[in-house]
Structures are given as structure tokens and as C-alpha cells.
Amino acid sequence: MIGPVGSASPSLSPRLSGTPSARASPADETAQAGEKNDKTADPDAPRSADGNTLSEQDRQVVENLKTRDREVRAHEAAHLAAAAGLALGGASYSYTRGPDGRAYATGGEVSIDVSPVPDNPEATAAKAQQIHRAALAPAHPSGQDRAVAAAAAQMEAEARQEILSLVSYSESNLSERRGRLLDRLA
């Protein structure tokens, strides 16, 4: 931003970046020259949002954020791949802005359909197995992932119990029918 135009004081020079100081001192001019050199010194060096080279500490923060971003995206991609048709859309991410001004994924989730299949315990058991696989698909499942896997295991157990009940009912019904048929034949 350029400072006051037509100022009554001839000692005021144009302001840089809103600095309210009067005339730039030789030290300030050296610092400004250093900033200019900083912006052109290493074109591949990580930069802040304003174009300056990042400090070593900020570079480390950026590297950590890049690593976390890759881990989060791989984690959610594993869920999506294993969930297949159960995924209710793609992954959603929460972001953290780094010192370089970029947004890095630092959290994420994949929503999947975990409802039982109505009136079909066999399909419910198969779906529960797929939910379980999807929940534990990443290399390092989170606590939430483990909770979903446990709920899926419970859903599968209940579906299997319902299957056994239906088979038991069918067998007893069949025995009853067989008994009546034998009574008629006798």
C-alpha cells in the first residue's frame, strides 16, 4: 500500500505494508532489500502466503502437514475402496491452513450405509461383513473405525441368529408337516 499523497511533511516516504514509520532508515532499507533477495534466493524453497521464504520451524510444520495430509487421504481412500457401494458419496475432509497459506487435510470421514437389509438376514450378514472390512481397511484404524467395526460384528451376529431362528422354525414346521403327512398315509 502506498502511503499519504500530498502530505504536508516532506520527510514522509511512501509506506510499505502499512508500516507507519516516517522515513526508512538505512537498516530498514537493508531489511527490505533482504526481503527482496529472500523472495528470489531459492525459487524451490517453501514460501509463505506473502512470498517470503519460510523459517526452518515453519518448513517443519509444512512437512508435518504434508505428511498428515497424505496419511489422511490414504486412510479415507482405503475406507472408500472397501466400502464400495455402501459409501454415501466421497470422503469429506477437515483442513488446517499451513504457514505457506495452503490447506492440508488433517481429518476426514467417509459416510457409509450401516442399516440392515429389511427382511433379509442373509443380505444383512453379508452387508455387515463389508462394513466391518471397510471400517478396518486403513493400515491404522481409528477408535471410531474400531467402534464401527464392532457395531458391524454385532449386526452380523444378530443377522446370523435370525437366520438360525428361521432355519429352526423351517425345520420344525417341516417336521410338523411331515408328521401330518405320515398321519394321513397311515
Written account of the structure:
With 186 residues, this protein is mostly helical. The chain has helices spanning 26-40, 56-83, 121-135, 143-185; strands at 92-97, 103-109. It has a two-stranded antiparallel sheet. The longest helix is centred in the C-terminal third of the chain and has 43 residues, at 143-185. The radius of gyration is 33 Å and the shape is rod-shaped. The N and C termini lie far apart (108 Å). The relative contact order is 0.08.
Note the main attributes of this structure.
disordered N terminus, 186 residues, two-stranded antiparallel sheet, rod-shaped, mainly alpha
Count of spatially separate domains = 3
Mean pLDDT: 79
Q: Cα distance, first to last residue?
A: 108 Å
Order of helices and strands: HHEEHH
Binned, the helix content reads 40-55%
Discrete helix count: 4
Count of beta strands:
2
Radius of gyration: 33 Å
- Kindly report the spatial arrangement of strands forming the biggest sheet: 1-2
Percent of residues in β-strands: 5-15%
Assembly type of the chains comes to single chain
Shape: rod-shaped
Class inferred from helices and paired strands = mainly alpha
Largest sheet: 2 strands, antiparallel
Low-confidence stretches: 1-37
